[in-house]
Amino acid sequence: MSKQRTNFRALIELTAGFCLVLFVLVISVKVALAQKPIREQKAVKAIDFLNSIGVNSAISKRGESLDKTIELMKYTGIRWIRAGYEGDIPDADFIKLHKETGVKFSYGLLSGGTDIERLLKGARKLDAVGALLAFEGSNEPNNWGFKYKGIAGGKNLTWLPIAQLQKDLYAAVKSDAMLKKYPVWDLCENGAQTDNVGLQFLKIPMGAGTLMPDGTKYADFATCHNYFSHPSHPGLYDNQTWNAADPGPLCKVDGLYGNYGKTWLKKYQGYTENELLTLPRVTTETGVTLSNEINEEKQARLYLNLYLSQFKQNWSYTAVYLLRDRVDEAGNQTFGFYKPDYSPRKSAIYLHNLTTILADKSSKFNLRNMSFEIIDQPETVHTLLLQKSNGKFELVVWGEKAKGSEEVEIKLGKTYPLVRIYDPTKGTEAVQFLRNTSAVKLTTSDHPFVIEI
C-alpha cells in the first residue's frame, strides 16, 4: 500500500507540475499578445480628403442664383462642382465662383452633348484662371442617347457612336498643348453597353475581342454613379456607403464592378477583381432622397459617411447630387444639401461642421506615421487617418450601423498629453478632452467622430 500511495503522490505532483507549466505558458502568451506592438499606419493629407468632396450644381441656371451658390459653397466647404456646357452657364459665372471660393470644376459633355470643340473652348477659359479640375465624358448614355457623326447610339441602340465620341474626346484633350495635363474622366453607365465596344476598359487591352480596336484609349479615370440607395438594393442596411464604394462584386449597387469588372447588362468581361482595386476612379453622382425610412437626420449622416467611405476605398473624387434641389423637373427633389428656397438641410450643416474641423490649406509638408488599432474592430466601424500641415493627426472613426450602436476602444501607440474628440453632428467645437491618455473609447452608430491628436 505504501508503494501505491507513493506512486499516486508522484502522479499528483507530476500532474500539478504540468498544470502549473501550462498555466504559466498561457499567461505568458496572453501577456505577449497584450504587449504586441500596435501597428503603425501612414496618414493621408487632410487637404487631399477635403479636395475630394464635390457636388452637382447648375450654378446660375435652372433657377439657381450665382450669388447663392457662392454662399453655399463657402459654407459647406465643398471643393469642386461637376459641370459642363449643358445649360449654357456663362463662362464669367464659372470664373467668378472660382475666384470667390477656390472651387474647381470637372467640365463635361454631360447629357447628349457631342461638341468637343465647344467643350475645349470653355475649358481653356477655366484653365487660364486655374479653375479646371478634369474633363468628363457623356452622362448616362443608357438614358440620354444621341447622334454622333450622323449615327444614333446609346439606350438600346448600338454603343459604337458612344465609344467613338469618348475616344475622340480623349484624343482631342491629349493633343491640346494647353489641356493635355488634365485627366479625362470616362463616361458613366458603360455597364449598359448593348454591344461590346470595350467601354469596360480605360484602354482596350490586346486580344479583348471588342468592336473597337485594341489599344483604344477612352479615359484616365473610371466614372460611376454608385448611388448608395439603389433599386437593386433599396432601403437602409449596415455598411451602406461602405458597400457602395466597394470596387468588387460584393457591391450591391451600380458600382465599379458592374461597369468595369463584368458589365451589368450584357456581362462583358472587363478588369479582374485585383485590377479593380487600383483602377483610378471617380464618382460624379450619388446621394439619396428623403423618405419614410430616410429622414433628414439620417440623410445627413449618410452623406458624411459617404465622402469618408469613398475616399478610404480609393475614389479620388466624389460628387453628391445635388447642391440645391431642382425646381425645373419632377422626381429629383430632396437629394440636395439645400431646399429650393436655399434653406439648409442638416446635411449642409453637418458637412460644414466636418470640413471646418478638418480645415487645412497647405499640402506642402511631409506625412508621418501614427500607431493605433481598434480592439476587436466591428465590421461596421471604419477609420481614416489624416494629418494637417500643422502636424496634428485627425483620426476619423465612423460607424455604419443602420440601427443601434457599438462600443469601441481605440488603442494608441503611446500616451498623448491632450486628445480632442469632435462630433460633426454636434458642432465644430470639441465634445470631449482627454489628458495623458493612450486609449479612446467611443460609442459608434451611424456617423463619424474626429479624434485630434
From TrEMBL:
The entry's keywords: Hydrolase
InterPro entries (alphabetical): GH
Gene3D superfamilies cross-referenced by the UniProt entry: Glycosidases
Domain of life of the native organism: Bacteria
Sample GO molecular function, one term: hydrolase activity
SUPFAM superfamilies the UniProt entry points to: (Trans)glycosidases (SSF51445)
Name the UniProt record assigns to this protein: Glycosyl hydrolase
Organism: Pedobacter ginsengisoli
